[in-house]
Design a protein that fits this description.
The protein is mostly beta strands. Helices cover 7% and strands 35% of the residues.
Length: 196
């Protein structure tokens, strides 16, 4: 009575981290342990060594048909774990020194099938909520408002196929420049610093 029915221990080293079509972006399935009470799901262990350790976690609720972004960071890695609802996450690589430079793509995220998405510095991203969405947003550096730039979600140069051509946007996101301006500003600021 009340026994766990999870098939995989979330500490199991056989859990595969999936690389995706953009260099450095990774998707790690999470394994809920379910019982008659519900479930428990680990979302982070330092031993997983997914990327830089998160120093800040935010809890975000997003209304249906809202699109947050598209934003990019030069200095920090982001972690996204959708815990409720369904979302489409759009990604576009601004790192000229990567084979996936200028590649865009989308990933589906569903709170019923938990996974952690790791987005490295230099990969622009936005999140579209198909229905009300709740997600955890981890940052490898504290939010300061400085390490953030963006572009219009609907710029064809992003190569992101959003599910809606007319999402709800904040005025600041609706007024963002096009992709080419973002790319020039990103590179003028130094792009992603090389690690020594």
């Amino acid at each position: 009575m009340g026994d766990l029915v999870s098939d995989v221990d979330s500490t199991d080293v056989d859990v595969k981290v999936k690389p995706v079509a953009i260099a450095g972006v990774r998707l790690r399935p999470l394994m809920p342990a379910r019982d008659l009470r519900g479930s428990l799901c680990e979302i982070h262990r330092d031993s997983w060594e997914l990327a830089a350790r998160p120093v800040q976690w935010d809890f975000i609720n997003t209304r249906s048909h809202v699109l947050r972004g598209v934003h990019v960071h030069r200095l920090r890695t982001d972690y996204i774990v959708v815990v409720g609802g369904q979302a489409t996450i759009g990604l576009a690589d601004l790192r000229r020194n990567r084979s996936s430079f200028r590649r865009g793509m989308t990933l589906k995220a569903d709170g019923e099938v938990p996974q952690v998405l790791i987005i490295p510095p230099g990969v622009a991203h936005g999140i579209y909520a198909h229905d009300p969405v709740t997600y955890l947003y981890g940052l490898s550096a504290y939010y300061d408002g400085v390490d953030q730039a963006g572009c219009r979600f609907d710029d064809p140069a992003l190569e992101i196929d959003w599910p809606s051509p007319d999402p709800i946007l904040l005025p600041r996101d609706a007024d963002l420049p096009g992709f080419e301006i973002l790319l020039r500003e990103f590179e003028a600021a130094g792009g992603v610093p090389s690690r020594s």
